[in-house]
Amino acid sequence: MPINIPQQLPAREILEKENIFVMDVDRARRQDIRPLNILILNLMPEKEKTEAQLLRLLGNTPLQVNVSFLYTATYESRNVSKSHLQQFYTTFEEVKGRRIDGMIITGAPIELMEFEEVSYWEELTDIMDWAKTNVTSLLHICWGAQAALYHYFGIGKFELPKKCSGVFSHTVNEPTVKLMRGFDDLFYAPHSRYTDVEIEKIKGHNDLQLLAYSEEAGAFIIMSKDERHIMITGHLEYEAHTLSEEYARDLAKGLDIDMPKNYFPDNNPTKKPINKWRSHAHLLFSNWLNYYVYQETPYEWD
C-alpha cells in the first residue's frame, strides 16, 4: 500500500526519486475503497491446484479481493469434475455484461499447437477483445502470455529444441517501473514450456517493454506501454514441488525429458526442491493488485 504523507514534506522528493510510492493527504481523502473484482480464466488442466496457487498470492495483500473463476464453454476439461465447474466457475456468456477490475489468464499445456488449432481459440480471442474495454488490467501467464503477445501485438512463438524446465536467474531490466518495485536486481523464477518468443521482437516493439529476462530462459516479464497488459512467460505462482510433479508425470509418459535445471538439490531428484522464488511471487502479485488494479480502477464503472 502507498504511504500517505503531506504534499510539502521534504522527504517526499527523496522518496519519489527512490521510486517509493507516496500519496498526499488530499488524494487520500478523495479515495473511496471497495473490494476489487478479479476474474481468473483458468485454462490449466488441474484447475484446483492452479486455484490454490493463485489465491495464495492474491490473498496476501491488505486489499479485499473478490475472485471469480471462468472456464471455456467450447472445451470441456477432462481433469476436473463437472460439479466443481458448476459450483465454482462461470462462462464468458454469464460475465460479459460486467466490468472487471483485474483479470488473470493462465497458461495451458498446449503450446506446441498453433494458436488457431486450439479448440477454444475463437472463444479466447472474444474474451481478450472484450477485456480491452471491460477490464482495467490483465495478467497473462505462460501460454496465456504467448497468446496475448500473438493476439494483441502480433508476436508469434517458436518451438524449442528441448523443454525449458527449471528455476532460472533473471535480471531486472526496468527497475523504475512500478511492477518491479522491491525486486532484487537478480531473482529466481520457474519455467515450464516447450516454446518461446523472440526477445528481440519484444525489445523492438513500439508498444511493449521488457521488464525482466533470463540469459537461459529468455524474456520473462513483459508489459504493454499503456500498462494494461502484463505477460509473464514463466510460473512464479508454482509451489516448490510443482516442477517435480511435472517431471515425474513426463517420465511416466515415456517422454525424452531432461531433469529441471537448477531445481533439485545436487541434481538429485530424490531430494526435496527448495523454493527460491516465493517472495518475488508475492511481490509481483502485490504490485500488480496495488499499482495496476487498485490505483487505476474506477470506484464506479460508467
UniProtKB/TrEMBL annotation:
It comes from the Bacteria. The keyword Plastid does not apply. It comes from Bacillus badius. It is found in: Cytoplasm. Its EC number is 2.3.1.31. The active site is at C142, H235, E237. The keyword Cytoplasm applies. The record marks E111 as: Important for acyl-CoA specificity. It catalyses: L-homoserine + acetyl-CoA = O-acetyl-L-homoserine + CoA. This is Homoserine O-acetyltransferase. PANTHER family: HOMOSERINE O-SUCCINYLTRANSFERASE. Transfers an acetyl group from acetyl-CoA to L-homoserine, forming acetyl-L-homoserine. Belongs to the MetA family. SUPFAM superfamilies: Class I glutamine amidotransferase-like (SSF52317). Transmembrane segments: none annotated. Keywords: Acyltransferase, Amino-acid biosynthesis, Cytoplasm, Methionine biosynthesis, Transferase. Substrate binds at K163, S192, R249. Pathway: Amino-acid biosynthesis; L-methionine biosynthesis via de novo pathway; O-acetyl-L-homoserine from L-homoserine: step 1/1. The record marks S192 as: Important for substrate specificity.
